[in-house]
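[step 3/7] fold_predict: job queued, chain A
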Amino acid sequence: MLMEDICGRGQVELLKLGVKNGRRHTVDVKLMPRGSVKLSVTYSTGLQSLSRKLSVSDSGIFGIPIGVLCQRERTRVPLVVTFCCEEIERRGLDEVGIYRVSGVASDVMSLKQAFERDTAEGARLAAEIDIHAVSGLVKMFFRELPEPLFTNELYPRLVDGIALGEPEAKKRIMASLVHALPPINLETTLYLFRHLRRVASEERVNKMSLNNLSTVFGPNLLRPAMGSSDYAAIAAMSHVGILLYLIQLPEELLASPPTPTRLHAQFQTIEEET
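[step 4/7] structure written:
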């Protein structure tokens, strides 16, 4: 019998379990035509499942502030990001639904654990494992940052900036906000933007436009930590719109940081227009 063969089917009504927040429930599910399976179910609210948490490990890669991680690695962009993105560009650009299609959860966890043990080990496994597990790990890395890549502080300014009506002012201000990121965050952002543009350049084959990629990455890169901002409850579509706008900004605009005086004036413009 192959591992993929369906041995039976069953269902469980979660409402009848009386699940309570944070409690673990074990239930036996009868399968048809025969057999049973034991499931362990834990309920958590939507806000809890989306919350960002600092890793309890000082030596890990995931759940670590990105600046701390890069300082330890002596890099400008986290190694796990560069290794995985390079692997995707090597053998995943023609994969339909790259980044949208989820990798097998056990494969993603195996790859995560390999990188946590040793970066070189993780890179070797990334070169062999299913490419959707590699793309899944990239998303997981940004999702598990204790503070989003675009930071809690800049998030409300980005929300205000995307709402501006004058196109040229909006373009300059949004680019200025990107350059207001901490150096490591900025380098990682620009690296990721270049990577996502390469993925989207093969949209005819992989069916992943910049809009699709922004839908996937927007919440992972922009969603604030719980309680950090009044903007935390804004719908995910706001994240998508902001990220799509930023990725489509001219590269020369993103490559040239504004002078401090000009940046201050543009920040002031946001406050006056909102």
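[step 5/7] annotate
The longest strand covers residues 24-30.
The CA atoms of residues 71 and 184 lie 9 Å apart.
exit 0
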